[in-house]
Amino acid sequence: MFEYEPVTDTLGSAGHALRLDMVTKHYRSPGGTVQALNGVSLALEDGTFTAVMGPSGSGKSTLLQCAAGLDSPTSGRVVVDGLEMSGGTEAQLTRFRRGRIGFVFQHFNLLPTLTVLQNATLQLRLAGKRIDRAHAVQVLTRVGLTERLDHLPAQLSGGQQQRVAIARALITSPRVMFADEPTGALDTRGARDVLALLQEAVRIDGRTLVMVTHDPVAAAHADQVLFLADGRLVGRLADPTAAAVADTMTRLTDQVAGGRVNEGV
Ligand SMILES: Nc1ncnc2c1ncn2[C@@H]1O[C@H](COP(=O)(O)OP(=O)(O)OP(=O)(O)O)[C@@H](O)[C@H]1O
C-alpha cells in the first residue's frame, strides 16, 4: 500500500503532471533567514516542456529541488501525478520519486567506476528491479551511445556523459523530468544534442519536462518560460524565441537591481 494519498481537492489535478500550491522554502543562515521561495504556485500539463529562468539567487534551483522531492518545502504542497509529495520520511520520498521523477544534473552525476550501461540502469538496480537489458540498450541507442555501452564516464565527452544521464532518467519512464542547467557544462554541439533529446522525451514519449537554464537559446526549446525573481514567479512567456527570452531577462535583471521586482515582466 502506498503511503501517499491521492489529492482530491477542488483545485483539480486532472491532466496536471506537476502542481505546486503556495510553496515556500526558508533557509537558516548565519546572517538570518533566507526566503528562497515565496509562495510559488504553478500547474504543468502532461507532455509539456517548461524552462525556468531568473537572476542568480532568484530561487530556480530551490524550486527544482522542492518540486523534484530532493528537498522539502517549508510550507505549501507539491503534487506529482495527482499525489501529494510534501512531507514523509527520506525513504518514503525516495520511493515516491521512483518511476515518477527523473533528474538530469549540470555535472552529470555518473559513477566513475561504472560503465555506461551500468550507470544508465543504476536506478533500477537500486530499486531492486529486474534489468531489462534489451530495453536499456534501446534507450542508449536512442541517445546515440550504442558503441559505448562498456565505456567508463572518463572515456566520454561531456555531451556523451550527459546523454548517459538522460538515458538513466528515461529508463525509469518518469512522469516528470527535471533538468538543472543540463547544458551548462557543454559546448555548443553537445548542448544542441542534449536539448534535442530532451525535446524528444517530451514530444515523442510525452514526458513533462522542467528545465532550469541561464541560456536564452536553451530556454527557446521549451513551450513556455517561467521567470523567477526573489523567490516569486513574476512572468511567463509562451512559445518563446531566444531574443524574446533575452529581452525579458534583461528587463527583469534591471528591475531586480532597481528594487522594482513587483512590476512583473
Ligand atoms: N542550503 C542553503 N542554505 C542557505 N541559503 C541557501 C541555501 N540554498 C540556497 N540558498 C539561498 O537561497 C536563495 C536562492 O538560491 P538558489 O540556488 O535557489 O538560486 P538560483 O536562482 O538557482 O541561483 P543561481 O542562478 O546562482 O544558481 C539564494 O539567496 C541562496 O543563497
Automatic annotation (TrEMBL):
Alphabetically ordered keywords of this record: ATP-binding, Nucleotide-binding, Transport
One GO MF term attached to the UniProt entry: ATP binding
Occurrences of domain ABC transporter (ranges): 18-255
Gene3D superfamilies: P-loop containing nucleotide triphosphate hydrolases
Any Pfam family matching the protein: ABC_tran
Alphabetized PANTHER family for the sequence: ABC TRANSPORTER RELATED (PTHR24220:SF685), IMPORT ATP-BINDING PROTEIN (PTHR24220)
UniProt-recorded name of the protein: ABC transporter ATP-binding protein
Organism: Actinomadura chokoriensis
